[in-house]
Amino acid sequence: MSGQFEATVEVDRPVEAVFEYLADGRNDPQFSPRVLGIERVPDAPTTVGTVFRSTVKDAGMKTSREFRITDLEAPVRIRWAEASKNTVTVREGGYDLESLVEGRTRVRIYNVLEGHGVGKLLVGLALAAARKDADAFGGRIKAAAEGAIVQR
Q1: CA 147, CA 134: separation in Å to the nearest integer?
Q2: What's the Cα-to-Cα distance from 1 to each of 6, 111, 126, rounded to whole Å?
Q3: Could you tell me if 105 and 8 are in contact, meaning their C-beta atoms sit under 8 angstroms apart?
Q4: Per-residue pLDDT for 60 more than 90?
Q5: pLDDT category, 2, cuts 50, 70, 90?
Q6: In Å, what is the CA distance from 136 to each residue of 64, 88, 96, 129?
Q7: pLDDT by residue (tens digit) across 5-54?
């Protein structure tokens, strides 16, 4: 079983700056409290093939995650897939960005979760929790991006 959750939010910053902020996955802990630590491999600007390795805490358990950037089109699209072997993984995910008037950006984030082994039984719970938190997650992205990106 697999399923998707998504959120859409408007960020009061220009699309190019929001893209740059989100493309650097090392910023994820600023809006995702489950991310305890993250590194970019190689430690260079994000491109297709860049890997982000993280330690996350889900349901009280720490796990290691590895995401590979699969598509990157500045400043409108970022895609990733999870390469790690966990019970519930992100088969695909991404950001879609759209420039709005007055230097604002619409951001849509989505993740397709997939269960493996016993994770096939757990993925429904993970999806329910992610869907319940989706609007708040979008709000955390908005607040973090606006806090990190200097208004011009």
Answers
A1: 20
A2: 17, 14, 12
A3: no
A4: no
A5: confident
A6: 24, 21, 18, 12
A7: 999 999 999 999 999 999 999 999 999 999 999 999 999 999 999 999 99
Query: Given this model, what pLDDT does residue 40 score?
Result: 98
User: For residues 29 and 36, is the Cβ–Cβ distance under 8 A?
Assistant: yes
Q: Give the span between the Cα atoms of 29 and 34, in whole angstroms.
A: 7
Handedness of CA 26, 32, 37, 42 (dihedral sign): negative
Q: Which amino acid is at 69?
A: I
pLDDT in tens, 65-94: 999 999 999 999 999 999 999 999 999 999
**6, HSE (Cβ side, Cα atoms, 13 Å):** 13
